[in-house]
């Protein structure tokens, strides 16, 4: 991944294999939580991203930019693009490792404007782990798998215990997510 700044992944990162129970290449991932801003189908203003496991340690996601996602007129808001990458990067970490984790650090490089009506084809890759630290990176191409690169991102996710979500979040929403059988705690 050609980002600016230091080497990626950092020294000390170890390669990882997908969890034996991780979904295989070609598996459509669906919605992990119906109210998630990134993928939820009960979140009207959300990004409604769709993701599929790719080859190797990748997840492929698509995000179509609508008028609800504008910053400048006719162009996607950079913060929402960062959100799309947070979702894609979290999906590759969570689905392939089957570990609960949260975003600790997220970097984005915006290389081209992303117009309303366009679709970003995002490929997120699991780069490795160092203890609780999970390193992931992604690039988003405009309107086709082989379109021009519009956004690159990389992130550090940190594994947490499940009580992170019930202690700091909404236990009832967590129960709703478990009951929907869309995530595997
Ligand atoms: C099927 C499922 C689908 C799942 C699909 C999911 C898709 C959804 C994706 C959206 C995900 C999100 O937005 S999550 C929401 C946004 N993120 C958050 O709310 C996280 C808020 N932050 C925190 O709760 C905390 O800071 C933690 C948990 C990240 C870390 O706290 P901690 O548990 O006390 O651990 P701590 O010792 O501080 O950090 C552990 C190690 O990580 C390093 N570390 C921590 N933060 C950073 C950082 N920003 N930059 C560099 N390094 C960091 C530390 O130096 C340390 O390294 P060393 O000493 O070990 O070397």
Automatic annotation (TrEMBL):
Q: List locations, semicolon-separated.
A: Cell projection, Ruffle membrane; Cytoplasm; Membrane
The domain of life for this entry's organism is: Bacteria
Q: Name one Pfam family in it.
A: 4HBT
Q: Where is this region: Disordered?
A: 1-25
Keyword Cell membrane listed? The answer is yes
Top-level EC class:
hydrolase
Tell me the SUPFAM superfamilies matching this sequence: Thioesterase/thiol ester dehydrase-isomerase
Give the signal peptide range: none
EC number, as in UniProt: 3.1.2.2
Which UniProt keywords are present, listed alphabetically? Apoptosis, Cell membrane, Cell projection, Cytoplasm, Fatty acid metabolism, Hydrolase, Lipid metabolism, Membrane, Transit peptide
Answer whether the UniProt record assigns the keyword Lipid metabolism to this protein.
yes
Chemical reaction(s) catalysed: (5Z,8Z,11Z,14Z)-eicosatetraenoyl-CoA + H2O = (5Z,8Z,11Z,14Z)-eicosatetraenoate + CoA + H(+); dodecanoyl-CoA + H2O = dodecanoate + CoA + H(+); tetradecanoyl-CoA + H2O = tetradecanoate + CoA + H(+); hexadecanoyl-CoA + H2O = hexadecanoate + CoA + H(+)
This protein is called Acyl-coenzyme A thioesterase THEM4
Higher taxonomy: Bacteria, Bacillati, Actinomycetota, Actinomycetes, Pseudonocardiales
């Amino acid at each position: 991944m050609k980002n600016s700044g230091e080497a990626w992944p950092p020294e000390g990162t170890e390669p990882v294999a997908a969890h034996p129970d991780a979904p295989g290449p070609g598996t459509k991932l669906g919605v992990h939580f119906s109210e998630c801003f990134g993928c939820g189908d009960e979140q009207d203003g959300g990004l409604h991203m769709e993701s599929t496991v790719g080859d190797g340690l990748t997840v492929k996601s698509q995000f179509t930019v609508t008028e609800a996602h504008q910053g400048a007129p006719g162009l996607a808001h950079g913060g929402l693009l960062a959100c799309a990458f947070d979702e894609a990067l979290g999906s590759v970490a969570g689905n392939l490792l089957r570990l609960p984790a949260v975003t600790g650090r997220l970097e984005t490089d915006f290389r081209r404007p992303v117009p309303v009506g366009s679709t970003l084809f995002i490929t997120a890759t699991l780069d490795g782990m160092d203890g609780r630290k999970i390193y992931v990176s992604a690039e988003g191409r405009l309107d086709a798998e082989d379109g021009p690169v519009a956004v690159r991102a990389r992130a550090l996710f940190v594994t947490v215990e499940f009580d992170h979500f019930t202690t700091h979040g909404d236990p009832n929403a967590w129960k709703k997510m478990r009951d929907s059988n869309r995530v595997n705690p």
